[in-house]
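Colleagues,

For the teaching module next term, I've prepared a clean inverse folding example: a structure given as C-alpha cells, and then the sequence designed for it. I'd like students to try predicting residues themselves before seeing the answer, so please don't circulate the second half yet.
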C-alpha cells in the first residue's frame, strides 16, 4: 500500500513542478502581451496628441488619456497610469491626476529611488524596470519636422503582470487527479512484486525520527535491485542529513545559551560597576583620611550600604532568593552623590541635590538607590564637560519622587522612547534607563520625561510611598 502512495506522491510532486514552470512561462507571456498592448496604446496616444500639444489644449489631452487608459490593463483598478509631459519633463496632463499632478517635474529627478534621464537625453523609448516588477516607460513625442513636443509616460504596477493563479490551479488539480487515477493501479501491481525487499527498507524508514540516525544508517538493507538500491542510498543520504541537522541544532542551541549568558553578564556587570566606582573611591578616602573617627565611620557606613546594594542587585537575579531590605532614607541621596563624585570630577560636572521629605519613607532602599545612581550617571554623560546636574528627592504620604535635570542638549520625547526601546535587553551598554523603567513598573509607579520645561532634560521617577509588592510564589 505504501508503494502506490509513494508513486502518487511522486506524481503530485511532478505536477507541482510542471505547474510552477507553466506558471513562470505564463507570467512571461502575459507580461509580453501587456507590454505589446502598451506599445499599441502609446503609438495611438502619440498620433492623436500632437495637435493637442501644439494647441496647448490640456482638457482634450486629459480626455484622450482617460479614454486610452481604459485599454491599458490595470488602469481601471488604479494600477496603471498614462501621462503627457511637456518638453521640459513636467506633467502636462495625466489619467490619474491624484498621483501625477499637473506641473510636477518628473524627468531628470529620482523616480521610486531610481534616476530618470533628462529631457535632452531621451532620443527614443526609455524603459525603467523597477525592483518590484513594475515598469515605467518614457516615449518622446516629435513633430513632423523632428522637434520634441513632449513625452508619453506609462507606468504599470507589478500586480498587473501577476498570473491567473486560480486558472492554473484548476488545471494542475485536474492533471494530478488523472495521473493518480491511472498510476495507482499500476503501482499496486508493481508493489506486490516488490513487497518483500521493500518491507525491510520500510522497517528502517519507520524508525527514522525515533532512533539515532547514525545507528539507522548501518541498518539499511543491501540489495542487487538497482531501483531499491537507489532508494536505500536515498534513505542513507536522508539519515546523514538528519544527523548533520541534529548536530547543527545542538550547536545553535549551545550558541543561543552562550549568547543569553553574555547578555545577562553584561547587564549584571553594568548594574554592579556603577556603585563599585564610588566604593573604590571610598576605600581610597579611608586609606588617606582613616585616622579621623568621623570620616572613618561615615566611609564605613557608605561602604556597607553600597555593598548591600550590590548584594540585593545580584540576589534579585535569583527567583528563589528573598532578601530583606531596609527602607529608603533621606541620606541615601547624599551617599549616591558621593559615589558618583569621581566620575563627576573627571567630566568637571557640577552636581546639585536637595531633599524635601515630609513623611516617613516606606519604599525599599536598594531599588531606589539603583535608580538614583543610574539617573545621575546618565545625566552626567548627557550634560558633558562643565555641565550641571540637579537632583531632587521628594516624598509625602502617598508618593516618592526622584527627578534629575541636566544642562546638556534637550532630549525629545521621541528620542526618549526610542532609547528605552533600544535598551530593552538588546543593547547591554545602555541598560540604565531601561532598568529605571522596569523598576517603576514593578513598584506600580512611572518613569517619564518631563516636557513641561523646554530647553532642558528632566527625568522623573515616581513610585507609591508603600512597601514593595510581594513576589508571586
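(Answer key — instructors only)
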Amino acid at each position: 500500500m505504501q508503494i502506490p502512495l509513494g508513486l502518487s506522491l511522486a506524481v503530485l510532486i511532478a505536477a507541482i513542478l510542471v505547474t510552477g514552470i507553466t506558471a513562470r512561462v505564463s507570467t512571461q507571456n502575459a507580461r509580453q502581451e501587456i507590454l505589446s498592448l502598451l506599445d499599441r496604446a502609446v503609438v495611438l496616444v502619440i498620433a492623436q496628441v500632437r495637435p493637442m500639444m501644439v494647441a496647448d489644449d490640456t482638457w482634450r489631452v486629459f480626455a484622450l488619456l482617460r479614454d486610452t487608459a481604459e485599454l491599458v490593463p490595470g488602469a481601471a483598478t488604479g494600477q496603471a497610469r498614462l501621462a503627457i509631459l511637456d518638453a521640459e519633463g513636467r506633467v502636462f496632463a495625466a489619467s490619474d491626476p491624484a498621483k501625477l499632478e499637473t506641473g510636477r517635474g518628473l524627468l531628470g529627478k529620482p523616480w521610486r529611488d531610481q534616476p530618470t534621464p533628462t529631457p535632452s537625453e531621451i532620443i527614443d523609448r526609455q524603459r525603467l524596470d523597477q525592483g518590484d516588477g513594475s515598469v515605467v516607460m518614457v516615449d518622446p513625442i516629435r513633430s513632423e519636422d523632428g522637434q520634441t513636443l513632449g513625452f508619453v509616460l506609462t507606468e504599470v504596477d507589478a500586480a498587473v503582470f501577476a498570473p491567473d493563479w486560480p486558472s492554473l490551479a484548476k488545471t494542475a488539480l485536474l492533471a494530478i487527479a488523472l495521473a493518480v487515477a491511472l498510476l495507482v493501479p499500476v503501482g499496486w501491481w508493481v508493489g506486490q512484486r516488490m513487497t518483500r525487499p521493500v518491507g525491510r527498507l520500510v522497517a528502517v524508514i519507520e524508525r527514522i525520527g525515533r532512533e539515532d540516525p547514525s545507528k539507522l544508517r548501518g541498518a539499511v538493507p543491501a540489495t542487487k535491485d538497482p531501483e531499491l538500491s537507489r532508494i536505500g542510498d536515498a534513505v542513507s543520504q536522508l539519515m546523514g542529513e538528519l544527523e548533520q541537522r541534529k548536530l547543527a541544532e545542538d550547536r545553535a542551541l549551545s550558541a543561543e545559551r552562550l549568547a543569553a549568558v553574555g547578555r545577562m553578564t553584561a547587564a549584571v556587570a553594568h548594574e554592579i560597576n556603577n556603585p563599585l566606582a564610588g566604593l573604590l573611591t571610598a576605600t581610597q578616602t579611608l586609606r588617606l583620611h582613616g585616622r579621623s573617627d568621623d570620616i572613618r565611620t561615615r566611609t564605613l557606613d557608605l561602604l556597607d550600604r553600597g555593598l548591600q546594594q550590590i548584594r540585593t542587585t545580584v540576589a534579585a537575579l535569583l527567583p528563589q532568593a528573598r532578601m530583606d531590605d531596609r527602607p529608603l532614607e533621606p541620606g541615601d541621596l547624599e551617599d549616591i552623590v558621593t559615589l558618583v563624585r569621581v566620575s563627576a570630577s573627571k567630566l568637571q560636572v557640577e552636581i546639585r541635590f536637595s531633599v524635601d521629605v515630609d513623611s516617613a519613607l516606606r519604599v525599599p532602599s536598594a531599588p531606589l538607590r539603583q535608580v538614583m545612581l543610574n539617573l545621575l550617571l546618565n545625566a552626567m554623560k548627557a550634560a558633558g564637560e562643565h555641565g550641571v546636574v540637579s537632583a531632587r528627592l521628594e516624598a509625602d504620604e502617598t508618593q516618592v519622587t526622584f527627578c534629575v535635570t541636566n544642562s546638556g542638549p534637550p532630549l525629545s520625547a521621541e528620542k526618549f522612547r526610542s532609547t528605552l526601546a533600544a535598551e530593552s535587553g538588546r543593547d547591554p551598554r545602555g541598560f540604565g534607563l531601561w532598568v529605571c523603567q522596569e523598576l517603576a513598573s514593578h513598584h506600580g509607579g512611572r518613569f517619564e520625561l518631563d516636557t513641561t520645561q523646554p530647553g532642558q532634560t528632566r527625568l522623573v521617577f515616581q513610585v507609591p510611598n508603600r512597601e514593595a509588592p510581594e513576589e508571586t510564589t
